[in-house]
Input
Amino acid sequence: MSNSTKYVFVTGGVTSSLGKGIISASLAKLLQARGYSTTIQKLDPYINIDPGTLNPYEHGECFVTDDGAETDLDLGHYERFLNVPTSQANNVTTGRIYQSVIEKERRGEFLGKTVQVIPHITDEIKHRIQLLGKGGQYDIVITEIGGTVGDIESLPYVEAVRQMMWEYENDCIVVHLTLVPYLAAAGELKTKPTQHSVKQLLELGVQPDILCCRTEHELDLTLRKKIAKFCNVSMNAVIESRDADSIYDVPLLMQTEELDKVVLEKLGLPSKTTPDLTQWKSFLDRLKNPTKEVTIGLVGKYVELKDSYKSISESFIHAGVANEARVHVKWIHSERLTTQNITEELSGLDGILVAPGFGSRGISGKIEAVRFAREQNIPFLGICLGMQVAVIEFARHVLGYSDAHTTEIAEDSAYPVISMMAEQKSISNMGGTMRLGAYKCQLKPGSMAFHAYNTDTIVERHRHRYEFNNDYLAQFEQAGMKATGKNPETGLVEMVEIPDHNWFVGAQFHPEYKSTVANPHPLFVAFINASLQFKK
Ligand code: GLN
Output
């Protein structure tokens, strides 16, 4: 390899949901804390070009980067742990790989040749892996291979890893994550699934360097020896990965197991430095010793699958820590909220958040939730659709436009207070065509948002097709709902507030995508603070 970037591949065996994303992010955190500039990439083996067109029930939240990529939720973990933004290059799917290869074929770049999985698809995968390393910006690139080793879909990825291990043997290692299950009836931890999954990797030509073993119980010396012996890895490369109270504990658990040290040794990089985790430890300390508590209702239509709101729930953790408070989230299904049960369902909450979303399911429950928060003076944060619903609720119950709606749901509403953005009207393709990524927003001095951010210009990430209809702005402002954040170039309303309310803020953008351990998001911090005040 021409430059000195090192590559760590993280694969998974035995079962999905072992937490490859968190292990990758934790390893990256430890390497970063030792002074190595590190980034993480996720390769997803599905055919969708990106997860933007996936229902959250399929794959959890869709995370959005500054450059407008719709990505896997693991990228959110990477950003929250490392406090470094990711980009389009950090998430690649099989669909995208094939798309590039097929486009090249049409351009005639393989003229005369048969285009095949090997070498063309694997070359494209290797190219995407090295794209992050080639800029020279990173010492270490960690590439997480989605799916489980042995799946038909992940075969080309494992083959690309095999080739890279062969071509750049001094610069690449493989960390394989497996499960060591506990059989209660036998009273024993079992290593056989791990042995089998390593065997499967070996059949594909890949010898893992390090094994991260997910387990509910301690991996004692005998077990470690056994795993090392059957899987051809050194004893110190058998890493125990126990279930943790919080994902933010994992970097420290991995440090105790010396995962970072073993990785550096195997990559031939100096490991004399000690990781500086002062800030991280102080975060954990405050996380575990809150002095107050607060309960927030999260109203959404995907609450059965909490991964659908991953960035929001993590933002609550960060903002709680910033306020020395434990944030309890009450998950409230918007579809079940009615005028009859709203008081019963929402009473006792210190704050209400109405979540982003698409389509009509659960919309009336969201409107009820906003109305309750507005009338009862309960701190309220509406995000994206949550902000749009706040506008609709205000139009219906304060301006008296009972038919007010968003044209996303009622195209022929007499009062389309939320309508499709002009630029969206000519778009027919659904994938990657929303208003996506980072845009500037100018805040009104003196507003709640201005107080939260303590500045008048912010940059936040978007993912929507509809917006506040400026034809109604004067009426809203006169009646007490103000536009407090606007795009300086287009005049699009990005934030609304009710100044007469305890704390009532709607944001067309997604603040949750930018909250990290090192930088809890100001809007969430202010929302939790307002909720704590309200509780008093
Ligand atoms: N469905 C709304 C829109 O497209 C809101 C999107 C969202 O909440 N992310 O404008």
